[in-house]
Write a structure and sequence with these properties.
The structure is a single chain. Helix content is about 40%, strand content about 15%. It is an alpha/beta fold. The chain has one domain (about 10-270): 3-Layer(aba) Sandwich (Rossmann fold), CATH 3.40.50. Strands 5-2-1-6-7-8-11 form a seven-stranded parallel beta sheet, sandwiched between helices. Helix 1 packs parallel to helix 2.
Length: about 290
Amino acid sequence: MGRAVEGKVAVVTGASRGIGEGIARRLGAEGATVIASARTMSGKGDFNGKPVEGSVEETVAAIRAAGGQAVGMRCDMAHPRSRAEFADRVLSEFGGVDILLNNAVGSLPGAYDQVTDAQYDHFWELAVKGPFDLIRRFGPGMVARGQGWIVNLTSRAAEHPPGPPYPDLYRSGGMLLYGAGKAALNRLTSGLAAELYGKGVAVNALAPVSLVWTPGAAASGLDKYRSSPGWQEEPVETMAEAALALATADPEKLTGRVVYSGEFLAEIGRKTHTLDGKSVLENWKPAIP
């Protein structure tokens, strides 16, 4: 497509695999210097107690192999000290961030009566406090330069469950706290957009229209729902394309939105491209068992 983010510095959290990896590669293909971060720097990671493929080093290697620029830095978004050390290093080495993509997320807690205080605190730290912390650390620099884009990755789970009767996915436990965290992130997004309006910084939230099948989704046990009536999936490229569009939007015209990938791309008349940006993605079909 071009070099839409040439010369920009982009931080992508949770970039070791799945949606984060896809977004990092798409931004890298469009000229950004990508700072890919996650807990897993090399080898296999751990999600829900299960080993999962994908690492920061692999994401960085893929970006560089495609001719892009990227560096990997470890950051555990659920721990304040790790976030602080990560942000300090980014600012020391790069001076500032133009694009912040808060994507990192963890495993789904259980049903309401099974969630421990430790699980609750950990999830809230990761899903809400973590993104807010990085915004506080990188946002002032964006405002000072009069330019910046913040994209928070959210979910349709932030909306009220459809029903009654309710789908099995919501009745089985796990979606309650996850949805509440994403709802909080949506409100943080719109509120921050209002505070920063007129200062050159766009703040938006992006969710999949349906599920993107990733190693994390598989480790979360969602495979048992894949044959459910009405189940839908979408390619990671759709999320990556929508993220790129939000990371290049006019902050005066597009801010404070919670958008859904494919619906948003249709709204702005934009096609989904491959992660290298060289061609339009055609004939994608989900792998439904």
